Write the structure tokens for this entry.
Amino acid sequence: MKSPNNLSSDQGFILTTVEDLVNWSFTRSTWPVTMGLACCSIEMMAFGGAPRFDSARFGMEVFRASPRQADLMLVNGRINQKMAPVVRDIYDQMADPKWVISMGACACSGGLFNNYAVVQGSDHVVPVDIYLPGCPPRPDALIYAVLELRKRIQADHHLTKAGREAAIRAAEEAALKATPTFEMKGLLA
């Protein structure tokens, strides 16, 4: 018989790093910002509020009304030229680290709206982590995108100072290379 102070071989223990623990907590508590642009918003609402697609299983039951309390942006639907600066402002106000899921054919590539008024893909406005095609994509497809984002966060997010600085440098270089939205003329120019 073993004393209570001795550990038996079946009790086990956990070894991890602080960075892995923090990354795990980031993946389990992403809070999306409340922002609906078009018809794909109905599917996002079904994911957020319907019991069938319970977003609370993923730690996302709280859709934040303030971008300062959110770290996930679901760009759902088409982005008009007038709305593009507003979407970018909301993205800039979000807390770091932040992630973006582009939801729907219109958000991914402009969809069937090939004209001067619609931005041809949300990646012209904000950096996109996961593309979710479909017109509109079903809530279960959004669940799959959230699970893929979790995998990406777990693998790519770095808590160390060197990792953060490298990510900031990459984001700044991408922002400097990007064409400003007011200069984008679309495919008809």
Notes: The helical segments are 18-27, 40-49, 84-93, 105-109, 139-156, 161-177. The mean pLDDT is 77. The two ends are 82 Å apart (CA to CA).
